[in-house]
Amino acid sequence: MLLVAVVSALLLHAASVAQAQTLRLAYYNQTCPSAEAIVFDEVQKAYKVDNRTAAALLRLHFHDCFVNGCDASVLLESGDNQAEKNADPNKSLRGYDVIDKIKARLELACKQTVSCADILAYAARDSVRVATGWFNYKVPGGRPDGTVSKLSMALANLPPHNQRNVTLLAKSFTVKGLSVDDLVVLSGAHTLGVSRCGTFQYRLANNNDKGMNATFRDDLRRRCNYNAANVAPLDAGSQYGFDTSYYANVLANKTVLESDAALNSPSTVNRVRQLKNDPSTFMRSFELSMGKMGALRGSSQGKVRDNCRRVRM
Ligand SMILES: *[C@@H]1O[C@H](CO)[C@@H](O)[C@H](O)[C@H]1NC(C)=O
Ligand SMILES: *[C@@H]1O[C@H](CO)[C@@H](O)[C@H](O)[C@H]1NC(C)=O
Ligand SMILES: *[C@@H]1O[C@H](CO)[C@@H](O)[C@H](O)[C@H]1NC(C)=O
Ligand SMILES: *[C@@H]1O[C@H](CO)[C@@H](O)[C@H](O)[C@H]1NC(C)=O
Ligand SMILES: *[C@@H]1O[C@H](CO)[C@@H](O)[C@H](O)[C@H]1NC(C)=O
Ligand SMILES: CC(=O)N[C@H]1CO[C@H](CO)[C@@H](O)[C@@H]1O
Question: Is 159 annotated among the ligand-binding residues?
Answer without folding.
Answer: yes
